Amino acid sequence: MFKLPKYNTIGKQEIDAVNQILRKGEISGFVASAGSAFHGGNWVKKLEKLFCKKFNTKYAISVNSATSGLYAALMAQKLEPGDEVITSPYTMHATASSILQCNAIPIFADIEGKTFGIDPKAVEKKITKKTKGILCVNIFGHTCNLDELRKIANKYKLFLIEDNSQAPGAKDKKGNFAGTIGDASIISLNRHKTIQSGEGGVILTNNKKIYDSCCLVRNHGEAVVRSYKIKDIRNTIGQNLRLTEIQAAIGYYQLKKLDKLNRERIRRANYLNKLFKDTSCLVTPFKYEKSKHVYYFYVMKFNANNSKISRNELVKKVNKLGYNLRAGYIDPIYLEPIFQKQICFGSNHFPFSLNKRINKNYYKKGLCPNCENINSKVLLTNMLNPEIPMKELKKFADVVIKLVS
Ligand SMILES: Cc1ncc(COP(=O)(O)O)c(C=O)c1O
Fold this sequence. Notes:
Shape: globular
Distance between the termini: 22 Å
CATH topology of the largest domain: Aspartate Aminotransferase, domain 2
Bound molecules: pyridoxal-5'-phosphate
Helix content: 25-40%
Number of domains: 2
CATH class of the largest domain: Alpha Beta
C-alpha cells in the first residue's frame, strides 16, 4: 500500500531564522500605539516588502490568517450593517463568514463550470442598491473570471476583493498575477497551503486608504486614531490580527520558494492531464490559454454515465490503496446551519434581520443550482506534493483509469 508523504517544505533557512529570533527573544515586534512598532517588527516588515516586490503591489499587510485578512479588507470598505456583498458559495467557509463578521450580508452568486469561480452573469443579476462589493475566490489554484468581474465592479462602482488564499503565483488569462486585479486580495499561509507559516495571511493592495484601514483593524485601531489624527473613524475598531516575527520569518523564506513549489505542482498536474486525457468519464482541469494554474488541488469532473463504477466506489477503492482522491469539495456554503437557520450573532437572526431581501427561505436549496450540481461531479486529489515520486503518480492514474474503464 502506498504511504502518502507529508508535505513539508520547511528548510534550513526557516529553521536558522527562527532560532535566531528565539535567541534574541523578540518574538513579536508590534506595539498598539502610534509609531514604527505599530506596523510590526523587522521580519514582519521584511515579509511585507518581499510580497510587494514579488507581486508588484504598493502595499502588503501581513495578518495572522487569511480569515483575518478577509475581515480587515472588508472592514476597510466601510460597510454599513446590512449591506450586501456578492460572493461564491463554492469556497472555504471563511470567505462568507468574514462578510458576516462585518455585520454585512453574503449574497451568493452561482459558479461557472470552467473555473469553479462566480459567474459574472450571475453576479450582475444579484446587484441591488444595497450591494457594496464583490468578494470573489480564485479556487483550487486558478483565477475566476477576473476581468469580467472587474468590469462589473467598475460599471456599478463596487469594490472587488479577491480571496486568493489558494492561488498565490497563479496568473489570469491576460498574464496578470492573481490577487492584483481586485482592489485588495488575500492569500493564506496556513499549514495546508503551498507556502505556509503555520498560520498567517497577507493582504495585497495598491490603495493607500485600504492599506491604512487594514493596519488599524490589525492592531487595535481605536487606540491610535487620535494620535494619527484620523477623521473618518468608521470601522477603525481593531482586533489583534498581528503576525509574530517567527511566522513572518518562515513566511519570508517560504515566499522565496513559491515559484519552485508551484513549478513542481504544475509538472505533476500536466503529467496527470496527459495520463487522463483519453479517459472519457474524466474532464481534466480547465485553464485559459494564457492563464497559469498553480494547482493547489487537482480537480476533475466525473461523468458517471461513461464510467464502469460510481464516483463513491471509485474514491473508496483508490483511497484503500493509500492514494488520495475525494468526491466533491464542499457543499455550497449556504446549506450550512448558519444560513439555513440564519443564526449568527445572538438568537434574533442578526445581521440577516437588517436586510429586507433576506426572508426566511432566502438561502434555500436550489439557490445556486450549478454549484450544487458541479460539486456532485467533482473529483479532487492533493497528490501534487513534490515528495510523491512520478512513478507513484503514474500508478495512481493507472488505478483510476482501470477502475473506470
Ligand atoms: C478559499 C479560502 N479562503 C479562506 C481560507 C482561510 O484561510 P486561513 O486558514 O489562513 O484563515 C482558506 C483556507 O483554507 C481558503 O481555502
